[in-house]
Amino acid sequence: MTELLDAYGEPFDPRPVIARWRLGEQEVAAQELWVRLYHQGDVGSASFAAIPDLVELIATSSKPDWNAYAMLASVEEARTIGGVLVPSSLADAYSAAWAKVQSFALQHLADAADDELVRSLLAVIAHAKGQHSLAAIALCTEDERSEMLN
């Protein structure tokens, strides 16, 4: 695999951090991934490389985590709305992960009650359906959406 770069252009391999998440270091790992994979709309090749592993994490977790879904939605937002291209070496795995995640999101949405989880799930579903601006709005808080409407 070519060298992966984080949202700041620094070398970063997200796989060991995702492995720590799987082993129970969810909060610390999620925080590190947020810092390295997505910064104010900026992403890097590591952000796209992380998506298949995050989808696998979602598939094997006993409970949905809003962080994983929100990361997926945020990286996809950078790609679609921000115009960031997925490196060709990562494109097939990235597309395959997005093809799988919609079914998990729909299953998790049925029982979701937590605001952050619901918003993240809706954003992923909207992206999967090609509704990218709707996905961006779904990630907004209720206050942010109300402000948009006023």
How is this structure best summarized?
The protein has 150 residues and is an all-alpha fold. The chain has helices at residues 15-22, 26-37, 45-60, 66-80, 88-111, 115-128, 132-139, 142-149. 70% of the residues lie in helices and 0% in strands.
Task: List the main descriptive attributes of the protein structure presented here.
150 residues, mainly alpha
Present the secondary structure layout.
Elements: H1 15-22, H2 26-37, H3 45-60, H4 66-80, H5 88-111, H6 115-128, H7 132-139, H8 142-149
Can you describe this structure?
The chain has eight helices and no strands. By secondary structure, it is mostly helical. The chain has one domain. Helix 3 runs parallel beside helix 5, helix 5 packs across helix 6 and helix 6 runs antiparallel to helix 7.
